Amino acid sequence: MVVAELNSNPLPSLQLYLDGPFGEGHQEWHKFEVSVLVGGGIGVTPFASILKDLVFKSSLGSQMQCKKIYFIWVTRTQRQFEWLADIIREVEENDQQDLVSVHIYITQLAEKFDLRTTMLYICERHFQKVLNRSLFTGLRSITHFGRPPFEPFFNSLQEVHPKVRKFGVFSCGPPGMTKNVEKACQLINRQDQAHFVHHYENF
């Protein structure tokens, strides 16, 4: 009886947008003017939603405290999480205000740094300069070989954003990686300049 009544009086269709899933420790990314997201292994999962959420809200003209996100993706191979590459590609296509900067660190090649790896590195840099895209991923994101040098990276952010006094750093992944992020934050915080607030989850 209820079904028949619904069929005879159809309701207007509604669009529903569902945000998430966000990791519990990463929900405060929007409270910082500049946030750094560091994902390794399966720990990249919560950041995929954050990246899409940021670009979507920006496209709607929403007022946000967060003006810039740096996403550092650490992976053994570019094929390990191809689904994430698709999301990053979508973010790049819709990020009209240059809100998101992505750095991909492929660690497997750096473990065997031989002549082949050197040639791949040279080709990657040339391809990125000429076509503004990565040879490995096809993304505009910057691809690096090896593990992220967190302390120099954080120092460079202070130069790019000299007026920002507090950066949000959110890492999710293997304990070794989050420990390195924490160590870099502590070293930077001793310099009595900008403060890097670190939140992390281990997988």
For this entry, give a set of tags:
203 residues; alpha/beta; six-stranded parallel β-sheet; globular; Dual oxidase 2-like
Q: Give the terminus-to-terminus CA distance.
A: 50 Å
Number of beta strands: 6
Largest sheet geometry: 6 strands, parallel
Shape: globular
> What low-confidence regions span 5 or more consecutive residues with pLDDT below 50?
none
Give me the secondary-structure category. Answer: alpha/beta
Question: What Rg do the Cα atoms give?
Answer: 20 Å
- Proportion of residues in helical segments: 40-55%
Mean pLDDT: 80
Produce the secondary structure layout:
Blueprint: H1 2-8, E1 34-40, H2 45-59, E2 68-75, H3 82-94, E3 100-106, H4 108-111, H5 115-131, E4 142-145, H6 150-160, E5 166-173, H7 175-189, E6 195-202
Parallel strand pairs: 1-2, 1-5, 2-3, 3-4, 5-6
Keywords: Oxidoreductase
Protein name: Dual oxidase 2-like
GO molecular function, one term: superoxide-generating NAD(P)H oxidase activity
Description:
By secondary structure, the protein is of the alpha/beta class. The protein has helices spanning 2-8, 45-59, 82-94, 108-111, 115-131, 150-160, 175-189, and strands spanning 34-40, 68-75, 100-106, 142-145, 166-173, 195-202. A six-stranded parallel sheet has the order 4-3-2-1-5-6, with helices on both faces. Helix 6 (150-160) packs across helix 7. The protein is globular. The chain starts with a helix and ends with a strand. The mean pLDDT is 80.
